[in-house]
């Protein structure tokens, strides 16, 4: 039996080359990207309102535009990849949404499957806007709020206002086990 080959024509069952585990470079790049993103997102509002001299409203709008663009790009590229890199299969007719009924008139020129895909994409974009609005708050409001507070932890040690964002991750780490071990069993007892 012939060994299966990967894209690099190495047998998939062979040991990793130079001790590199599969996917470790992808994980490393993703971690570096996330560190870079959060480092910039945590400090950009302070930079825009400080050295750049922008008002808080203008700086917040600029940060929100930046975060919105970065958050929306994966959706855009997923759509492009789906359109150009996959072959269309058999599609089920989706139920029309009242908000997107205006697209039904496009049935004169386009296939029904294309119209339903467009409706699904627009529904996704609309729900994504709510996420983007909530996601922008830590990089704007939390940081500006922290800048107005007394951030001294002890004499001679002042915490930067960007550390306010760490409370989101910290609360997630603390409350997920509480949710999983306490709230889920309690609600299961009622159902």
From TrEMBL:
- Region of interest called Disordered, as start-end residue ranges on this chain: 1-26
Q: Which Pfam families match?
A: PTR2 (PF00854)
Q: Which family does it belong to?
A: Belongs to the major facilitator superfamily. Proton-dependent oligopeptide transporter (POT/PTR) (TC 2.A.17) family.
Where is this protein primarily located?
membrane
GO terms, molecular function: transmembrane transporter activity
User: Known InterPro entries for this protein?
Assistant: MFS_trans_sf, POT_fam
Topology within the bilayer: Multi-pass membrane protein
- Lineage: superkingdom: Eukaryota
Record's keyword terms, sorted:
Membrane, Transmembrane, Transmembrane helix
What name appears for this protein in its UniProt entry? Uncharacterized protein
Q: Where are the transmembrane segments?
A: 65-85, 120-137, 157-179
What subcellular locations does the record give? Answer: Membrane
Q: Show the GO cellular component annotation of the record.
A: membrane
Q: Which PANTHER family match?
A: OLIGOPEPTIDE TRANSPORTER-RELATED
